[in-house]
């Protein structure tokens, strides 16, 4: 019995990292606040869209996060990708296209409005479930002026 309990405990501890995986897209961009006259509530609006081109479906329709000025990188959580990877009804193994964009949302207007796009990037259509599981989904953004 003691051996069985040790086996179950080892199994639970070895399976824990699988269940605790966080699927993220890491987005980085260059410093550019687009001459925003920041009153204290301006921010970078970061948006991520993920499509599975192999199965012709959108997985993440547009996850948006706010990032304070002075920060130029963020991990955007995309748990929908994990659920999609585990979907037994998919006809083909997923092949993801990832798009990320960053805009400056300036607070000198009410409501705050986007005054410029500081970058955008689209991955080739070859990101896989393994890429997400291993944390290999980074988006160094192109810089637009």
Short description:
Helices cover about 20% and strands about 40% of the residues. It is built from 3 helices and 8 strands; from the N terminus they run αββββαββαββ.
Describe this protein's structure.
With about 140 residues, the protein is of the alpha+beta class. About 20% of the residues lie in helices and about 40% in strands. The chain has a five-stranded antiparallel beta sheet with strand order 3-2-5-6-8, covered by helices on one side. The protein has a three-stranded mixed beta sheet with strand order 4-1-7, with no helix packed on it. Strand 2 and strand 3 (about 55-70) form a beta hairpin. The radius of gyration is 19 Å and the shape is elongated.
């Amino acid at each position: 019995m003691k051996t069985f309990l040790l086996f179950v405990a080892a199994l639970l501890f070895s399976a824990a990292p699988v269940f605790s995986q966080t699927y993220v897209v890491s987005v980085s961009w260059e410093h550019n606040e687009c001459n925003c006259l920041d009153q204290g509530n301006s921010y970078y609006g970061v948006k991520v869209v993920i499509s599975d081109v192999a199965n012709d479906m959108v997985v993440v329709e547009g996850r948006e996060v706010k990032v304070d000025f002075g920060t130029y990188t963020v991990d955007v959580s995309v748990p929908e990708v994990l659920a999609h990877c585990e979907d037994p009804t998919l006809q083909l193994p997923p092949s993801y296209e990832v798009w990320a964009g960053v805009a400056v949302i300036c607070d000198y207007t009410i409501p705050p409005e986007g005054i410029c796009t500081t970058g955008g990037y689209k991955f080739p259509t070859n990101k896989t479930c393994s890429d997400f599981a291993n944390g290999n989904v980074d988006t160094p953004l192109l810089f637009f002026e």
